[in-house]
Design goal:
29% helix; minor pseudopilin epsh fold; alpha+beta; 3 helices; 153 residues; four-stranded antiparallel β-sheet
């Protein structure tokens, strides 16, 4: 009698699911718990969403409430914005060339349907380790680097 055993089918299913999981960056990005990757993915997706839907999308960083809020287009579910909370022991700063360094109060970044030239840099400090997340609005690329990138050069 020819056929497959249950064990062989489970091994094939496991390998297929592993390859599918690694092949889909959006699924991977949602499941990874690292704040840096989550924020970088959020910035990239917001820019892409604004351009594809031709609607303005807002990214609010509220230092008092210690959270990021995303609202507009597909980001809203039942009129509630998506929220990413700042973890304990974590500090954030935002650098926008036209506004400088922002680290208190509230800043609203509008992603417009037209491509903007201005970059956005988020600086996160967690457990004494600094990370820079930089969105290049022209290309839509997001970089994650250790340390703080200096834009004065």
């Amino acid at each position: 009698m020819k056929g497959f055993t249950l064990l062989e089918l489970l091994v094939v299913l496991f390998i297929t699911m592993t390859l599918a999981f690694l092949s889909f960056p959006s699924v991977w990005g949602e499941l990874v718990k690292d704040d840096n990757v989550t924020l970088a993915s959020a910035l990239r997706n917001l820019r892409r969403e604004a351009v594809s839907t031709k609607k303005e999308i807002f990214f609010t960083i509220d230092f008092r409430e210690r959270q990021f809020r995303v609202s507009g287009a597909k980001s809203e579910v039942k009129d509630r914005p998506r929220i990413i909370d700042m973890n304990e022991g974590e500090t954030w700063e935002v650098f926008i060339p036209s506004k400088g360094i922002i680290k208190e109060g509230q800043v609203v970044v509008a992603f417009s349907p037209s491509v903007q030239e201005e970059l956005i840099a988020l600086y996160l400090t967690k457990n004494g380790k600094e990370t820079s997340i930089i969105l290049n609005n022209l290309s839509g690329e997001v970089e994650i680097e250790e340390g703080r990138r200096n834009f004065d050069e």
